[in-house]
Amino acid sequence: MDFEIRFKSITRRWLMNVYLPVVLIVVIIAGVACVVVRNSYLKQVKNAAEEYASGFSALASIDEDYFTLAARDYCEQFEAKDKIEIMIIDKNGEIIVSTSGFERRNLPMPDYESAKTAVTGSAYWIGKSSAGEKILAGTYILDDKQGGSNGAVRYAVSLSVCNKRILNSCLLIIGVAFAVLLLSAFSGIFFVKSIIRPVREVSAAARKIAAGDYKEELKSEYTDEIGELCDSINYMQTELKNAENLKNDFISSVSHELRTPLTAIRGWAETAKMSVNEDTGLVERGLDVVLSEADRLSNLVEELLDFSRIQSGRFSLNMRPFEVSELLYSAVSMYIELAAKRNIEVNFSIPKNDVIVNGDPDRIKQVFINIIDNAVKYTEEKGQVLIQQMAEEGCVRITVKDTGVGIPAQDIDHVKEKFYKANNSVRGSGIGLAVADEIIKQHQGLLFLESVEGVGTTVSIVLPTVIPLVEETEKIISPTGEVITAKEETNE
Questions:
Q1: Which terminus of the chain, N or C, has less C-beta within 10 A?
Q2: Distance in angstroms (rounded) separating the CA atoms of residues 343 and 332
Q3: Contacts 24+ apart (CB under 8 A), 365-369
């Protein structure tokens, strides 16, 4: 199995944060289970031994003179001699008889010593016999009715069988724990590899995309978060590819937009230079063209600067109240002559009622010029451009409707995006409408388009209005101390 553990890798994090805690928990559980099993077996042995020894409790009521004889009789009649050894201890702590029949002397009995001082009168001990065998021994004192004691009963049982069972049970527990850890390791490795492999593919694809290779596409076999990540990378790749195409188209378009006026300026400048003192009319005509094309270049550069300011968040507005119709008429009048030369009819009637808007008049005029310029550009000869201003409740609506080529349905939702041009046959940078939309948004207004390809386009601009209030008087104190009352019209 190809499995690599890198420093600061997902595999290492899984190993340190997941697998090692699992190992620790499993080891602790296995250890506790082994202790529980050991104590359970020992308790069973101890209970069985005490049950066998309980048959000798009747010796407590035997007279001292008959105690030794009765003890021997009990030991001879004991039937479980092959399972446990019972020893009878007299008052002096000497073993007087044993069920094994062997004479016991100087035998270490720590359980007997503990039982003599214990409140319960009993105690048990686990250790090794004189032969080195692991045993469990226990003692309980034989208390008589007069508050004295005839001696004690001590049992001893071998733990060899019990220890084998404990060992087998612990080995089984350890085997299960090891199997759990092994299964966890393999499942964890498989899971980590199922993450690492697509992550590395995503990383490799991202590097290719960053290097400009937009042909890379990830094929995801998953429907979870990994699949979503692959889909997001593919979506990013598509968007970057589209952005790259838009950027290239934009550069091509702007280059063309710059080259055309520069070519005209250079050509007419050379013509005017050669015609000085020879053809005054040609020189004047050439200078007019140079000035016109210079204005066109200036407008294009200003449009690019505005877009840059918007992108960097440095776009600012000089807000003040202004009358909309005068600004709109000023923008319309700039295109009446141009439209007439192309045999395009421009219709606009100045509304009777003034509508006041709080905003930056220069920026709003810029929007009007951009919209009207597009309408005239995309309207063919003998077409019509209709411009209307309508006051509505709390706002004013300006519509520019043309009978031009229209916008295809698949492009209508993208024409306000930066660098996007639905028609590349007409001059333009592709950012004018994006700048116009941002300006209207910053005036708390709306700009939206309706278009039918081959029929025409309607652009609507909605701006909030302010209501002129009743005239108020303002007190102004002159330098001489005289109070002058001046009337002032305020707006909300």
A1: N
A2: 16
A3: 365/327, 365/330, 365/331, 366/306, 366/435, 366/436, 366/439, 367/436, 367/439, 367/440, 367/447, 367/461, 368/327, 368/328, 368/331, 368/332, 368/398, 368/461, 369/331, 369/334
Q: What is the pLDDT confidence band of residue 429, given thresholds at 50, 70 and 90?
A: low
Q: Which two tokens stand for residue 252?
A: 């091509």
Q: What is the pLDDT of residues 186-234, one digit of tens each?
A: 998 888 887 888 788 888 888 888 877 777 777 767 677 777 888 888 8
Q: How far apart are CA 229 and CA 219, in angstroms?
A: 11
Residue 202: both structure tokens together: 């995503």
Residue reference for tokens 């008052």: 91
Please give the average per-residue pLDDT across 266-275, as a whole number.
79
Which of helix, strand or coil describes residue 333?
Answer: helix
Sequence-distant (6+) residues with CB within 8 A of 125 are: 110, 111, 114, 136, 137, 138
Residue 43: how many CB atoms within 10 A of its CB?
10
What would the pLDDT profile of 434-491 be if each residue is shown by its tens digit? 888 888 988 999 998 888 888 889 999 999 998 654 343 333 333 343 444 444 444 4
